[in-house]
Amino acid sequence: xxxxxxxxxxxxxxxxxxxxxxxxxxxxxxxxxxxxxxxxxxxxxxxxxxxxxxxxxxxxxxxxxxxxxxxxxxxxxxxxxxxxxxxxxxxxxxxxxxxxxxxxxxxxxxxxxxxxxxxxxxx
Length: 123
Hints:
mainly alpha
């Protein structure tokens, strides 16, 4: 008598679907608690982020290199941030409001000037 080899896979799949269903029910019951935890975390991040702690190079590596290239020298339709001809005020305006396909608000308002200074320092 030969056993069907697909039965263990069906049992594992059924167990997985049951587990997902159970965990989603648990999440629905605790959604207020989960949301409160996220709000507290966001408030803590905002309080902890000050201009002194702001690292413009880290922000550039995290948010700018995907479009402007690893060395920020520009690529495709995205201009170079190195040796830019824009003034500090123009750079701050672009960071705050965006321009073209670049969205605004990638840097918190309190850190816009520090980011603009960093971009102007790129040589």
